[in-house]
């Protein structure tokens, strides 16, 4: 039986667990492990079946075993001899494995039956007879040319056969017979690319533009990829790329107005915001989101903004792509095949940046996959000034992708038609198997790291070669002119015409006015309390928070549903108490703990048309075994998320994405989802607060600054368990001081201040409940950093009443002392976080409730100037002004003290109070906490006793 190249039977991808595994012609969808199979958002990997070799083919493979070994050697090692390096700098040794004599094949005219060994496209019988010379020529044409393939290391036999059949049965270039229009399209893109870079060099000689010279084939490669996607009914492409060639891509393919570009080069802004000045970003981070048309099929390409931290945007793009798939799934009731993620990389950063490995690690996980990304490495064989020999330990920069069994296609960037063939093969693989694939586009960099750099300082021989070379556009133009595809006049007219366009744009840039910030698409409206509400800029006069309270009936319904399981579902015996305690607190309306408040916040938002996604390690049960939002059947390991099961009629869903042991990529992924969906509450929970250290780049370059740089809103929530409890230096602190330092919170009261992110340290479940709901009950989005509890999760004193969450209640940035201020108050201790409960206990033990007031600042940024002044004012009107204290358990150089000191002074000065706030807490330290138990206890005791000494 002749094996024919398998084709996808349909394009649907099963995104939701409620869709059962399906058997179809030529493939079967199999779930290897049952664990998590019922949870919302679990995306099943597709597995494939195909006809095995026929008995005749198997027999022939045995008979011609030496030939089989020879063919497999070419498939496996052909890349080592292929002509893939334009500069011929790759170290190439003679590949003995490619010699037929090593397999006992010596007679070039000997006939061999290739049935079941090669996939030449012909039928059986005599047509399958080939001489050794013909076989050698055939295999070398496929595997030792200007495209080299690495797929034989894939563990899947089906994938290996897929590649072998495709490559060997379709050996003719995809350009053959494609018509002149396509070749002219390639020429047009290449020629305009060269004109563009030359124009910028002439008009702005001191500009760091990170040009595309030497790698111009990237443009037709992306054009081919966009076209292949569009013709396969992909409607959205999420594109991430670094700086090199970005301006060329924007102007040459993504329709970016050259006048706007020149306006930016001259120092202008990209966009305007009313009553506010956006910082903007550098030229090489500009973006565009055009809708492109290929043969009547439209595809929207969204190039994401990115920082200069190379590769940091990769997980953001992946998260945005998956969130877009879920948006389409809900809106169109179809699978998410309409979205594809494309990631461009540099060769040195692809090997050197750990976020690449972390993001690849997410690519096939059921709560993270977006159905395969196409990776294109624009490979200069040099990073900044470092040669490949010092930049990586592997043969190829793409070898890192083998950690997820990713096939790699290496292609010589000097040959655009071969580049396009590689791109189209890559797309076919991705679109069929829904897995990642890498195109290693081997090119060179005509200038240095930037155009003002002299690369010959460190690479004289490389650049001697480069400077003697004709450009890629010039080489391709010569080829088309010589074969009659293009005349010299028509080739010249492309360049002349585009140069004139650029000159016109340069003139127009003098009067160019950047557009105002615009809210459209999914960001135009949001649903609040069942009504569509127009989204606004966070600093707008129209920005507001809607009521976050919920009726007690709904709260009880949601709370009970959060522990409800299907009949016959057997939970762990120790969780019976968890269920009993929750139901009891709901019935009495008292003793609501953190997990119950969280569940009620989630469920009430789900009823109001909002999805929730909480991601991180062990988030289903919670690091401290407190959440149990996901329950596992003790007999079957089947999983149920009670809120999804019990809230019949809820439009929203709760996705519990237990993640890999990654911080940077996982947080970047959730942040990307927040860019795509304002109707999603995305939460990342660190196992301990300090775990965010591994994701600091995402926090610095995206979460804290994206609104200011790129006018991008996000409702991301970071839950960072915080609090000194004797656990040592590594798991005590969420580094609140770092988060606060990243805010643009004013030091003095400014009513119109638009603070970039909110940092809170709540002390009650009700406060946490309102914070979560506030994220979605606003007509704008803002990142929220929560110094989350550890010891307070089950502390009876830190519980709340149901009445604190009903309509009319809301988050309080400052919690006053429970006792009414009197003239007896001698000290007012201002605190934040869990130390409050230790101080309250100590105060009660000393009988000082009437002499020491404890005021909790729950929201540290934006600093609650007005709220705090209202709470402190009664203490300033007494006959004796009390002493003012700030108490924290963190060391003095850490925690909130550095942030609150001047702001507290501003509040007190505004109330007419002179003097300073006295600090009580640990002294300066290089670590958040000691790891010596006795020392910790002595330090903590001193902090707790400090506010009461001398009274």
Automatic annotation (TrEMBL):
InterPro entries: 2oxoglutarate_DH_E1, DH_E1, KGD_C_sf, ODO-1/KGD_C, THDP-binding, Transketolase-like_Pyr-bd. GO terms for molecular function: oxidoreductase activity, acting on the aldehyde or oxo group of donors, disulfide as acceptor; thiamine pyrophosphate binding. It comes from Paxillus involutus ATCC 200175. NCBIfam families: 2oxo_dh_E1 (TIGR00239), PRK09404.1 (NF006914), PRK12270.1 (NF008907). PANTHER family: 2-OXOADIPATE DEHYDROGENASE COMPLEX COMPONENT E1, 2-OXOGLUTARATE DEHYDROGENASE. Pfam families: E1_dh, OxoGdeHyase_C, Transket_pyr. Residues 592-795 form the Transketolase-like pyrimidine-binding domain. Its cofactor is thiamine diphosphate. This is Transketolase-like pyrimidine-binding domain-containing protein. Coiled coil: none annotated. It comes from the Eukaryota. Keywords: Oxidoreductase, Thiamine pyrophosphate.
